[in-house]
């Protein structure tokens, strides 16, 4: 392991994404989709598992880097003793085949460059057959082929199952590399001019960024988070992956390593709200439509997550030949949590579709019938224990957040019928369910001695998800039980001012050994809760600190370890960036501090 998680930047084409390190190496790339096998897997192994590095001869980390404007085009600059050079990395929005383009440009002096391409298909396990054809280096193995060319051509040679090259650039000189994936049984892919592709890519991002309606404080951070969410969108379907990576650890050297290259329902309401609030109605509508397609069917079969196009089977396996990031094993492909019962997803789906209707998204004629079907199933199952929001792999429990979201499901049905009395549905039935759930949660999920809601019925443990109680409207923010919960969570789950999602001390509720870092979206929830309970200045201070935890190009992982000052977990994490956008927009609606 040579790079910290926060040493990576993201490039992508709205169907997959790559991580580029500060050393100029692309260490993670799955082709052709986010959830395909990786052809560069050095991130979770070593150089022999695939990477593509372009950098000055003998150099290590770049001097500085950043995205060009409000785009996903990355510029890395090296200042060497003989001159200065920059590398522009990007993936143009694809026509058919995915391309990775890297343009090397001399800025001053003359700089000798080195490039090493080591392709390893199927998560670093398959060495392809390499040949020359039509001015390309071509790598083929099974269904995959990758074509590499440079403009102008530079000398290349094979060495240790890698393609190497060296060349020199002076001020104003450019060498462009184009790497293209396509199915191995098809003829050579269409040639794309890299310089024209760069201009088109910059224009595409400029046009997209111009649609943002937010102009308040921290606009740069909000815009970067929105660009990241767009980059994590699978354009053909509108689904948004939780992260483009798998198995980046929640604890260095630990076993909490999961595959996040799928679409979770838990993110749906907050994601939809963030997109709509920033003016991205088309993206919000695409996400809503993906949701409707994914959850269609028997409500008993509702899953917590789906594949990019709504796939239901996401079997979890381990990849033994990868040693794991920092030695954290196992490396997992797929996610067994897809088989869990998580009752909160019914509330999240109902809340998302309620928000879509209330904010004027064009309705889908079958949506209400689907909602009634889901609610009918929830009516008979909400009393059961489940695995909860955090997908625990321990015993099922009566998680308070799950019950609160069952209340949300009934509440949104009631409010929809009250606003649209012509719709079919028994409003009195859903009111009765809503009242019963509310009464039970307040009786069984609340600790009157400590004045806080707990993680589950009869438990003394706390859960950061209870910070969402005022946000979803279960209780008003000024209710003493809400204020007490906010204070208790901050006291018991706080770590150096940030928030863990739950305690992993002693016998962990999730059935796993070891611990984890503070959970970034939970820390954003704390800022929201502080704002809602009248502590606006404290909320602003916490939010400013969270923004400061982003890496040098504005990206956040899932977690943060205050002790080592390291980002942890899959990266970049959609939920963390959704939290940033939501909190920023909410704080902007408050009166200015002072």
Automatic annotation (TrEMBL):
It comes from the Bacteria. Signal peptide: none annotated. Coiled coil: none annotated. Keywords: Hydrolase. Pfam families: Glyco_hydro_15, TREH_N. Residues 216-583 form the GH15-like domain. Gene3D superfamilies: 1.50.10.10. The keyword RNA-binding does not apply. Residues 3-149 form the Trehalase-like N-terminal domain. GO terms for molecular function: hydrolase activity. The keyword 4Fe-4S does not apply. This is Glycoside hydrolase family 15 protein.
């Amino acid at each position: 392991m040579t790079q910290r998680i926060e040493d990576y930047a993201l490039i992508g084409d709205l169907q997959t994404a790559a991580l580029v390190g500060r050393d100029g190496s692309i260490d993670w790339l799955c082709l052709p989709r986010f959830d395909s096998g990786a052809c560069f897997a050095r991130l979770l192994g070593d150089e022999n598992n695939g990477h593509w590095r372009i950098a000055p001869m003998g150099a290590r980390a770049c001097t500085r880097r950043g995205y060009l404007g409000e785009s996903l085009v990355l510029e890395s600059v090296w200042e060497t003793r003989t001159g200065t050079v920059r590398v522009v990395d990007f993936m143009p929005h694809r026509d058919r085949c995915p391309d990775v383009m890297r343009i090397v440009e001399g800025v001053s002096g003359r700089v000798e460059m080195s490039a090493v391409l080591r392709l390893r298909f199927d998560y670093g396990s398959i060495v392809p057959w390499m040949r020359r054809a039509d001015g390309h280096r071509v790598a083929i193995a099974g269904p995959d082929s990758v074509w590499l060319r440079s403009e102008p051509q530079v000398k290349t040679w094979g060495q240790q199952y890698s393609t190497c090259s060296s060349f020199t650039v002076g001020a104003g000189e450019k060498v462009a590399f184009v790497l293209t994936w396509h199915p191995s049984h098809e003829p050579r892919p269409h040639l794309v001019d890299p310089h024209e592709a760069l201009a088109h890519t910059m224009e595409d991002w400029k046009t997209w960024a111009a649609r943002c309606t937010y102009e308040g404080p921290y606009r740069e951070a909000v815009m970067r988070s929105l660009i990241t969410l767009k980059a994590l969108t699978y354009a053909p379907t509108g689904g948004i992956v939780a992260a483009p990576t798998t198995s980046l650890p929640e604890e260095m050297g630990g076993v909490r390593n999961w595959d996040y290259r799928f679409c979770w329902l838990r993110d749906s309401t907050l994601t939809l709200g963030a997109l709509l609030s920033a003016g991205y109605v088309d993206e919000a509508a695409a996400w809503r439509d993906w949701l409707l397609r994914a959850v269609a069917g028997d409500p008993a079969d509702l899953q917590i997550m789906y594949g990019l196009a709504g796939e239901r089977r996401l079997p979890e396996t381990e990849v033994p030949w990868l040693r794991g990031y920092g030695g954290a094993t196992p490396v997992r492909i797929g996610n067994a949590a897809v088989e869990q019962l998580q009752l909160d997803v019914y509330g999240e789906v109902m809340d998302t579709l309620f928000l879509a209707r209330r904010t004027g998204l064009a309705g889908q004629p079958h949506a209400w019938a689907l909602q009634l079907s889901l609610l009918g199933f929830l009516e008979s199952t909400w009393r059961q224990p489940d695995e909860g929001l955090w997908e625990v792999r321990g015993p099922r429990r009566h998680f308070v957040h799950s019950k609160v979201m069952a209340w949300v499901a009934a509440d949104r049905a009631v409010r929809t019928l009250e606003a649209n009395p012509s719709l079919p549905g028994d409003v009195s039935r859903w009111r009765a369910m809503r009242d019963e759930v509310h009464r039970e949660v307040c009786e069984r999920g609340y600790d009157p001695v400590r004045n806080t809601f707990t993680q589950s019925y009869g438990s003394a443990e706390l859960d950061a998800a209870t910070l969402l109680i005022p946000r979803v409207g279960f209780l008003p923010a000024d209710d003493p039980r809400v204020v007490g919960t906010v204070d208790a969570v901050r006291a018991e789950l706080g770590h150096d001012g940030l928030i863990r999602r739950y305690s992993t001390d002693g016998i962990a509720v999730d059935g796993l050994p070891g611990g984890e870092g503070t959970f970034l979206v939970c820390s954003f929830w704390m800022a929201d809760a502080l704002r809602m309970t009248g502590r606006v200045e404290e909320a602003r201070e916490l939010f400013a600190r969270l923004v400061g935890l982003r890496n040098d190009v504005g990206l956040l992982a899932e977690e943060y370890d205050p002790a080592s000052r390291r980002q942890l977990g899959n990266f970049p994490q959609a939920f963390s960036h959704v939290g940033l956008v939501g909190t920023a927009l909410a704080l902007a609606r408050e009166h200015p501090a002072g």
